[in-house]
Structure formats: C-alpha cells, structure tokens
Write a structure and sequence with these properties.
The structure is a homodimer. The first copy, chain A, has about 120 residues and is mostly helical. Chain A contains 5 helices and 3 strands; from the N terminus they run ααβααββα. The interface between A and B is medium-sized, with 33 and 33 residues.
C-alpha cells in the first residue's frame, strides 16, 4: 500500500510538467531517440535526458541504448494506477455532490410545503 | 491552451503528495476544518494549511472562513481535466500496443510459413 502510494507520488510529479506530458504524447505516436526528442522540443540533450530520466523513474517510459543511440518508448504499464486513483475519487466526488443535491431538493420541498401552510 | 497546460502542471503537482491525496479522500466523505484535518493526519496547523493551500491553488479544494474556523470542501470542478488527459493518453497508448501486437502476430505468421517452406 505504501509502495503504491509512493509510486503515485513519483508518477503524478512526472506528469506535472508540460514538456514531460508532451514527451509521452510524442512517444504515443512512435518510439524516439533522445536526440529526436531534444530536437522536437527545442531542448539541449542534457535537458531532455533529465526529463526522460524522470519519466523512466516513474515507470512511464523505458529506454534502451544500442551503440550510441538511446531509444525511448512508452512502458507497458501505462497509466493504469493513476487512472484508477482519479476515477475512484471522481466517483466519490460525484456521489457526494449528488447527496448534496438531494439535501437541497429536500430543503426546497420543505420550503414549498412551509410556504403553502403559511398561505392557507 | 497554455492556460490548460499550466493548470494541469499545478494539479498534477498537487496530487503528487500522499497526504494531499489523503485530504481529498477525507473531504470526499465530509467537509472539515483545518484543525480537524490536522488532527486526522497528525500534523501541525501550519503544515496542514500549506497542504490545503496547494490544493486550493490547484482548484481542487475551496475554503471558507467563518469566525475563527476555516472550513475546507471539495471544489465543484472535480478532477475532470486530469481524468480527460489521462484517459486520452491511455487510449492512444492502447492503440499503439495493439498495433505492435499486430506486427508481432504478422511476424509470427511469416515465421510459421517460412518454417513450413523450409520443412517441405
């Protein structure tokens, strides 16, 4: 459970940067070398290596070095855990607002009845 | 578009902390004061105020001060944008792995045919 929480810490932090989200989108189209990614995002190789390192540590990207080229690809694990956490929260969130809606409706109904009683 | 991206930066960063995710879970059950949250998570008021501040800046929590008590509740906007981004990525991710599966199947098929030819 702690392991799971720690991995969400790392992966949500990895997703909290527009460039890193962009890299995931780019790798969703095709695998790419660090050089290709650096070119695509107008960055230095050093800067791109850091971003890819963060994504790799979060288990979102895997890299493989063949000769002098390091190729990056999406990891197989995908975004399952992150999606599951958000989906579960959203469901509770909605249930909570539905419950509040019911209370408001109930109060409105009481107000209506009360109004009628006053008038009669 | 830049606005949208910036807000995802802030909200994914807000979600990258287990205590802050815990606060969202707690507020999903009932509204709570800063003091109640601090007690629930065994934290100082100052520490809890910081966490709530991060969630408020990300638009995930709203707070209201009545007298000396600041009450925290989930914001109405929910986690829609974050869920949409993750869901879109997951779909592309799956499509990409499905395409890879097809290539692997195709190669396996060729290998099989090739094997048969060799044997005959």
């Amino acid at each position: 459970m702690v392991q799971f929480k720690a991995s969400l810490d790392v992966s949500f932090a990895a997703l909290s940067d527009a460039t890193r989200r962009g890299i995931l989108e780019r790798l969703g189209q095709a695998d790419a070398s660090i050089t290709e990614l650096a070119d695509a995002f107008g960055m230095t190789l050093t800067g791109m290596k850091k971003h890819v390192g963060v994504l790799e540590a979060a288990g979102l990207v895997v890299t493989q070095k063949v000769g002098r080229v390091r190729t990056c690809k999406l990891s197989l694990r995908g975004l399952e855990e992150e999606a599951a956490w958000i989906e579960q929260r959203r469901r509770l969130w909605e249930a909570r607002f539905d419950a509040l809606d019911e209370i408001v409706d109930e109060l409105a109904q009481k107000e209506k009845t009360h109004g009628r009683k006053k008038r009669s």
